[in-house]
Specification:
208 residues, mainly alpha, 2 domains, 15 helices, globular, binds iron/sulfur cluster
Amino acid sequence: MSQERESLVGLLKQDVLYQEAVHACINCGTCTAICPAARFYDYDPRRLISDIQNVNEQELVEILKSDIIWYCGQCLSCKTRCPRNNVPGFLITALRSLSQDKGYFAASNEGNKQLTVKRIVGENIIKYGYCVFIDEIGTENHPEQGPVWEWYRNNADSILKKLGANYKGEGPGTLRRISKEDLDELYNILKETKALDRFDNIERYCND
Ligand code: SF4
Ligand code: SF4
C-alpha cells in the first residue's frame, strides 16, 4: 500500500462518498446560502469543500477533531443546487466515518454526542428494529415536550390504536413487532457493513 493510501488524506479520498462529493469548486457560495445548518451554526459548507481540496495531513486531523463536521443535518439541500455537482453533505459523511474510525471525534463536544446517539438510536435499531422506540424514551430527558409526551407514553396503546398503528402487534402495520428473523438479518447487515465495529469504536473512544 502506498504512503498516499495509508495517510488520512488518502483514506478520505478512497471513500466513495468523497469521490461523489468533491469536484472542482468555484466557490460560488450557493451551498452555504441554501444550507440550514449554516444559518444556525458556525458552519460553512463552501469553506469546507474549498479547504478539503488542498488539505494536508495535519489540517485534516484538526477538521476530524472539530465540532464542524457534526453540525450538518444531512438534508442534502446542497446536492440539489451546486453548479459543480459537489455534495458537502456527502463529504461530511465521509469525514464523520473517518473521524469515528480513528477516534478523533471524541476530541470535540459535538463528536462526543455520538455516544448518546449510539446508545439510543444504534441500540434501538439492534433491539427493536426502530431508531426511536417509544418504550425507551424517558420523559425526564425531554422536558421541552412538556406534559404532552408523558400523557402520550402513558396512553400509547389506546392512542396508537385510534391512529391505526399496530403497536407491538404481529403482522403488518406501523410500529409492529419486528420478528426475530428480521432482527437477526438486520444485525448481520450491521455486522457485515462494519457498523458494529464503529459502534465499538464509539464506546472505546468516547468520554463517558
Ligand atoms: S455550491 Fe458547489 S461550487 Fe458553489 S461553493 Fe458550494 S460546493 Fe463550491
Ligand atoms: S446536507 Fe448538510 S451541508 Fe448540505 S445543505 Fe444540508 S445541512 Fe447543509
